[in-house]
Amino acid sequence: MLEHAAKRANAPALREKEYGIWQTLTWSQLAHLVRELAAGLAQAGLQRGQHIVIVGANRPRLSASMLAAQSLGAIPVPLYQDAAAAEYAFPMNNAEVAFAIVEDQEQVDKMLELRETCPQLKRVWFDDPRGLRNYSEPGLASLDALIESGRGHVSEQQGWFDEQVKRTQPDDVAAMFFTSGTTGNPKGVVHTHFTLTDRARAGAIFDNLSSAEEVLAYLPPAWIGQNIFSYAQWLVCGYVVNCPESAGTVMIDLKEIGPTYYFAPPSVFEGLLTSVMIRMEDAGALKRWLFHRFMAIARRTGPTLMDGGAVSFGDRALYALGNLCIYGPLRNTLGLSRVRVAYTAGEAIGPDLFSFYRAIGINLKQLYGSTETAVFVCMQPDNQAKADTVGVPCEGVELKVTTSGEILIKSPGLLKGYYKNAVATDEVLSPEGWYRTGDAGFVDASGHLKIIDRVKDVGRLQGGAHDGAMFAPKYVENKLKFFPYIKEAVAFGDKRDRVCAFINIDFNAVGNWAERKNLPYAGYTDLAQKPEVYALIRDCVEKANADLAADDKLCGSQVSRFLVLHKELDADDGELTRSSKVRRGFIGEKYGVLVDALYAGLASQYIETQVKFEDGRTGMVAADLQISDAKTFSAVRRAA
User: Fold this and answer.
1) Which domain range does residue 227 map to?
2) Which of 66, 350, 407, 501 is spaced 20 to 30 Å from 329 by Cα?
3) Structurally, how many domains does the chain consist of?
């Protein structure tokens, strides 16, 4: 930060959209703000090595607060802003957090609620004062007050801030990120300044990133991916990070900014494609015909052109016409017209979804990494993007695969350890420095890594026609989630004679489809159980089965029975992690009666489920769920 402020003082560092207008913070202004915040925090008692919680959406002053804490040698701990107060208790007590900086009234209320369970929490500062005028809690103050308290100290002690920065060494702890906690309490992943900046620099070199990039910061700052792309790499490269006005304006802000470097999990790309397909179904017959005609050309020609391959003159001319009439306007509608590099990670992306974006001229690639590796392990080079791999090892990374198929990694970006959890640290870090990823996969002939599933989740079918066949639930779920009508899927089959699945419909996509069919419905639960919707989902499941039949290793993982859940899986109900990963074991236990009904051959099953609403209230959702069979296919032998 200080280097950018010295060399590029007036260059924009951060932008925030407020009241519909983009406000810019230059590098010199940022450096000045960080100095004042650091002085204020020091006067409040924050010391080197202490943890400070940061909770909120992407906001310039929250990023500055992280920098201020790190300048003092303190350790910021970003937490998910949409989590319930009770979910903060473990990480805050685990890290002995006494200080918190939060975004707004919602987060302040959570912190105040936690004071009984986290008695060490003494000071809380907030960025947005709306709704907080009449709060008079001890230890609660605004960031403006914190800045004001530090301003005098900065003017009186001219060299104090620089001395604090010089005391910090590359191997000192820079930040701590808590894992999703899919199977228990989350673990605090400890990263140093070196691990974060080294991996950020490796990713920047790989894709030739520069200070000219524009990035939209819209994902949770508590997620390591967002923290790398919109914080560590931002500091390494010096590009501009843009903070949207709110979650509801992200798509509008995306179009206004026109990012050149873009990152999103597969669910975001799925949502964008679903919105496109919904709009096309509502378009006139001529527009629909043109869209489908040119998309067929794009699928045949676009990926080859993106990879620098040879294409006939006729196809090249047709693609150019399609780019003028369809692909260019579509990229502009999605807000991706200026994207030079786009990445997806976190979950496997469906091959058709991946190909769609590359077909319309978006350089979408995949990468592989985790919280423990500071994200960058494998990346796809330009012209080598494949739907079924996650790329080649990037600078400094070594890979090897064990006899059980688990991927081991050596990298400069590996975690220092799990906080206060030596047992868990020893489980994942070998004495020789190898990190056990828990992922099953292999390196193909071209040197690209292919991920199959989590090692612990890969199972075997027992009994039936496919006795002993491999079962990879995530692989099956991602096949199903490619279809725009399926938002989420949970597959079961380990140690069973066949594979069955729970399905969550995409309410917007299926609702739009139902309206075109003049099919009335009273809400999610009613729509999900319509016979017509079951027929629609059955068609998707059977198409996925046909695709699985062509896979030598996973042809036995075809879904033979399924049901459509009466409610959406929700992190507030414990069914998803805050990073939207399915907690399959928890779901299997919570809905055990439904799993049993699937395997017992029942045609329906009644269930009542408690749900938690956004305002904290609870209620019950009940339904008689239909259970449907799906057609499975004989294994297809591919030609040698």
Assistant:
1) 2-168+222-250
2) 350
3) 3
In a domain, 255, yes or no: no
Q: How far is the C-alpha of 506 from the C-alpha of 528, rounded, in Å?
A: 10
For residue 11, give the 3-state DSSP assignment. Answer: coil
Residue pair 278/272 in contact by the 8 Å Cβ criterion: no
- Give the tokens for residue 281: 């179904």
Which CATH number belongs to the domain containing residue 339 in this structure? 3.40.50.12780
Q: Which residues of 121-132 are buried (b: 16+ CB within 10 A; e: fewer)?
A: bebbbbbbeeeb
Residues 6+ apart with CB under 8 A from 412: 194, 195, 198, 199, 202, 396
Structure tokens at 594: 């439904």
The conformational region for residue 555 under phi > 0 = left, psi -120 to 50 = alpha, else beta, is alpha
What is the spatial distance between Cα 277 and Cα 296, in angstroms, rounded to a whole number? 14
Count of residues for the chain?
640
| 559 is a domain residue | yes
| CA gap 253, 335 in Å, rounded | 8
Q: How high is the mean pLDDT of the chain? A: 92
538 & 433 share domain: no
Are 350 and 385 members of one domain? yes
**Among 436, 454, 472, where does a domain finish?**
454
Q: Do 354 and 478 lie in a common domain?
A: no
**Does 482 lie in the same domain as 438?**
no
Mean of the pLDDT values across residues 506-535?
Answer: 94
Contact in structure between 62 and 221 (CB atoms under 8 Å): yes
Q: What is the Cα Rg of the chain in Å?
A: 25
Q: What is the DSSP string of 438-455?
A: EEEEEE-TTS-EEEEEET
- Coil, strand, or helix at residue 474? helix
Task: State the maximum Cα–Cα separation within the chain, in Å, rounded to a whole number.
Answer: 79
Q: Which tens digit of pLDDT belongs to each residue from 191-224?
A: 999 999 999 999 999 999 999 999 999 999 999 9
Considering the domain architecture, whether residues 482 and 444 belong to the same structural domain is answered as no
List alpha helices for 346-457, DSSP H: 351-359, 422-428
Q: What is the CATH number of the domain that holds 617?
A: 3.30.300.30
Looking at residue 639, its pLDDT comes to: 43
| CB environment 389-410: b (16+ within 10 A), e (fewer) | bbbbbbeebebeeeeeebbbbb
Of the three residues 426, 454, 482, the one that is the final residue of a domain is 454
**Segment 37-94, tens digit of pLDDT:** 999 999 999 999 999 999 999 999 999 999 999 999 999 999 999 998 999 999 999 9
Residue 640 lies in a domain: no
538 and 498 in a common domain: yes
Establish if 226 belongs to a structural domain.
Answer: yes
Q: Are 142 and 125 in contact (CB under 8 A)?
A: yes
- Residues 548 and 636: their CA atoms lie apart, in Å, by 9
Q: What is the mean pLDDT of residues 403-429?
A: 95
DSSP code per residue over 271-283: HHHHHHHHHHHTS
Rounded CA separation 240/236 (Å): 12
Quick one: 239 and 354 in the same domain? Answer: no
pLDDT bin (cut points 50, 70, 90) of residue 377 is very high
* DSSP 3-state of 140: strand
The Cα 421–Cα 144 span in angstroms is 37
The DSSP output letter for 74 is -
Examine the domain organization and report whether 238 and 368 are in the same domain: no
